[in-house]
Amino acid sequence: MTDNSPLLNSEAPAPDTPPPHPWAALTPDRFRLLRLAPLPTDRDTGPRPLRFVELAQVERHTPQQSLLKLFVRLPGQVLSKKHNVLEVWADHRAKEVRFGPDSGLHMEPANRGLGRFLLAQGALWAQKRWAHYLVEGGALPAKDITGEGMRIRRDHCLLSQGFDVLYPEPQQLKATYGAPRVSSLRPDWNTEKVQIIDLQNAAAMLEQADRNLLELETRNSDIQERLNRFRREDGTLRFTIACLIAFALFQAGLLIWIATR
Questions:
Q1: By C-alpha distance, which of 59, 109, 64, 51 is closest to 83?
Q2: pLDDT tens per residue, range 35-74
Q3: Residues contacting residue 32 through CB under 8 Å, at least 6 positions apart
Q4: Cβ neighbours for 147, distance < 8 A, ≥ 6 positions apart
Q5: Does residue 49 have a cis bond before it (omega within 30 degrees)?
Q6: Model pTM?
């Protein structure tokens, strides 16, 4: 008798799933403010107004491995845990650095320079300690690419930060990325799109915004006062014109009466 019945198969023990990594649920402990510069409206991603977002990070170290985890948080918006997260793992035994997560780097808002910024931050962190380490490459998810423009932006982001993007097949459906060593990665990004705002600059921006609001309120009060004065003058002019018309009609009627007498 063979053990091919559905019942026996359903009762077969499931393979053991590996336990989650102890650092999988780390919460950030350092925070900074990012300014996303206003950009022209994009045909694919839509309007790109001025925005401020939060950069949060956490890192851990052991003799065997190290981790840097970066988060980009949007005020008043809840995103999937797979979005706006970059992980940089350093394996000190293999002397290798890996960029993650495995599901890929998904940024929201898209096309604002945040992907390059996070990769630059991860490269800078790794180069300060392990510039001689190798970079572990991997496959780029193809299911997330919904158009040619998105694929070009993704490849440009990786190439700009020093990664190599290879297409084993001529159809360019599946791609892999990699780099020789950590030292070959670029720790810079487009600072015209993404700017780090420190506490002093943030305070100065808030003070300037408050002064601008006060000036606008003063201007609005002056404009409202002038409008009210114009309304009063307009009412006076209307009354005067009405009186003049009534007097002119009276004079005309009086002249007609005299002429017909």
A1: 109
A2: 999 999 988 888 999 999 999 999 999 999 999 999 999 9
A3: 54, 55, 196, 197, 198
A4: 44
A5: no
A6: 0.74
